[in-house]
Design brief:
The protein is 35% helix and 16% strand. By secondary structure, it is of the alpha/beta class.
């Protein structure tokens, strides 16, 4: 059985962007009441008393937009300082990154994933649902700040939307040539905007790879991450190209992760909404932490069955109650 040792922690379900594929601007969202958002102390208790004793060693802070959380640097410092932490990463849209990059690095963060779906400001603004202000430039400045500070690896996440940014695949892939940045192409999933998904659908990673291969050639990378990405490299490039193909491939059998939402729900499988476990209510009502740990342990034992059930029973029909911003993408 696959070892599940990776927890993705959503720090907040709010965001300063309204990406079309995640929280489209015209769709009202129910944010969780702020009183239900786990505090840093609660997150640390869950890590130290529940997840670490169960073997978790890798943590990613995400959201919503994690940099909107005022105490994010303190949390990074506290998790990085846990002796059991082997890997700590953060996923951000980088809008607020430039002034925070050095503090995050000093607090112990080394790995960062930044969402960047377009190099063309106009298209970028269309995707993130904001017009009128130059958010692209501020994001780019955030990426450059992270580079200067020394984040390594620095990964750029690209969600490919047919007819919107798929003409930029080669330009985005070219970012790996000189700088040692890594680009991850993610197949668009029907979570968050089923309508856009229905209209635009998704492009299989194999097709993207072929386009890049035609231009430069492409070899399988010797660096294999511990995630679901298939990793390749343009010959001679300093960075790698990853392809996350959750639509065209099923990688449930190598899934090593679970997700904790900002309001404390543990979700065993991204594509299956069943069997989520509320950790906040028992934690706040003084339930024994040992009981909580056993509930999580038993959920983890059932995870393979939960993963595959989504595929076999067709529960992933494209209608999800929560968006990626709420789940912690
Ligand atoms: N706000 C941060 C950001 O955008 O990087 C972190 C949270 S965001 C939900 C995490 C990742 O999920 C981003 O890389 C985003 O592109 C991806 N994502 C969101 N909705 C998606 C969808 N419908 N299909 C594929 N990826 C999606
Ligand atoms: Fe916000 Fe990230 Fe979702 Fe975009 S993908 S709306 S930046 S949470």
């Amino acid at each position: 059985m696959n070892v599940v040792d990776y927890l993705r922690i959503s720090l907040i379900d709010r965001c300063n962007f309204r990406c079309q594929y995640c929280m489209p601007a015209d769709t009202p969202l129910d944010y969780v009441p702020s009183a239900t958002v786990l505090t840093n102390a609660e997150i640390l208790t869950l890590l130290q008393e529940v997840f670490i004793p169960l073997g978790f060693r890798k943590f990613r802070l995400t959201g919503g937009e994690p940099l909107l959380r005022p105490d994010v640097v303190e949390l990074v410092g506290a998790i990085a300082a846990l002796p059991q932490t082997q890997d700590l990463a953060l996923t951000t849209n980088a809008f607020l990154l430039a002034p925070l990059a050095a503090d995050l690095y000093a607090a112990g963060l080394r790995r960062i994933n930044i969402s960047l779906d377009s190099l063309e400001p106009e298209i970028f603004h269309q995707i993130i649902g904001h017009r009128g202000r130059d958010r692209w430039q501020q994001v780019w400045d955030g990426i450059l700040a992270a580079h200067r500070v020394g984040f390594d690896p620095l990964k750029l996440n690209v969600v490919v939307i047919p007819g919107v940014n798929d003409h930029e695949i080669e330009d985005l892939a070219a970012l790996t040539l000189d700088r040692g940045w890594h680009v991850r192409f993610i197949e668009f999933m029907p979570i968050g905007n089923a309508e856009l998904f229905g209209e635009r659908a998704w492009i299989a990673s194999a097709e993207l790879r072929q386009r890049i291969r035609d231009r430069w050639g492409l070899v399988e990378s010797t660096v294999r991450g511990n995630g679901p990405a298939d990793v390749f490299q343009i010959p001679g490039a300093r960075g790698t190209l990853g392809f996350i193909s959750q639509m065209s491939e099923c990688f449930c059998d190598r899934c090593n992760r679970v997700r904790l939402s900002a309001d404390g729900w543990l979700r065993p499988c991204l594509l299956n909404e069943t069997e989520q476990l509320d950790l906040r209510t028992p934690l706040r009502s003084g339930e024994s932490i040992g009981v909580l740990r056993e509930q999580v342990r038993s959920l983890l034992l059932r995870k393979p069955e939960i993963n595959f059930k989504a595929r076999e029973s067709g529960t992933n029909d494209g209608v999800y109650a929560r968006t990626m911003s709420q789940i912690g993408g």
